[in-house]
Amino acid sequence: MLKKAIYVIVIWMNHHLIFLTCIEPPGNLQKEMISLRRVLFREAGVVSALVLPPIVPVFFSAGEPDERSLDTLISACEGIFCTEEIVIYKNSIFISLKNKELWQKMRETFASNEEKTLFEPFPGIFLASEIGDIDLSEQELKKLLSVPPQHGEYKWKSSNLTVLKIYYETQEKWWENLFWETVFSRKIKKPQ
């Protein structure tokens, strides 16, 4: 028993901790995003595509945001989200949101407190980091992912505001030894 406890402490000491407040799309869209991420991993070897759930990152923080500020954030982000296109932004790949104003409104309150990040937040669904390390051009990457889908753009009314508690080993290749847990998740109200 003592051996296990020491092992857990050693693991904890070797990891950094960060919180990510994000928007989680509904289940059907998450399934499609997971499929796209698997393509990135299978065809281009992008490991970071597999480590986080499908999310729209809003902001990172060193400590867990308090629930009152999250409730304020939920009321600020009522609306319909709609995706646009594949975007490569600061070595990460996203499916961008059409209505960036909603995301910007949410981020304005908290981004000034952001000390460190695993990747630079962008108004879109995060697919992967480390894009600069693969041998595909931006056009080849977009063709590989073939977004938007056959049925048109992704559009959703229901989603959750979620806070992930993320443990990672190194900043440089954060995806190599990472685990996370959900510490807060609340449904974002649909617009009236």
What does this structure look like?
By secondary structure, this protein is α+β, with helices and mostly antiparallel strands. The chain has a single domain, classed as Alpha-Beta Complex (Cyclic Phosphodiesterase, Chain: A), CATH 3.90.1140. 31% of the residues lie in helices and 30% in strands. The chain contains five helices and eight strands. It has a four-stranded antiparallel sheet with strand order 2-1-7-8. It has a four-stranded antiparallel sheet with strand order 5-4-3-6, with helices on both faces. A hairpin with a 2-residue loop joins strand 3 and strand 4. It is globular, with a radius of gyration of 17 Å. The N and C termini lie far apart (55 Å). The N terminus is likely disordered.
List the topology elements:
Layout: H1 2-13, E1 16-24, H2 27-44, E2 56-61, H3 67-76, E3 81-89, E4 92-97, H4 100-110, E5 124-128, H5 138-145, E6 155-156, E7 159-168, E8 178-188
Antiparallel strand pairs: 1-2, 1-7, 3-4, 3-6, 4-5, 7-8
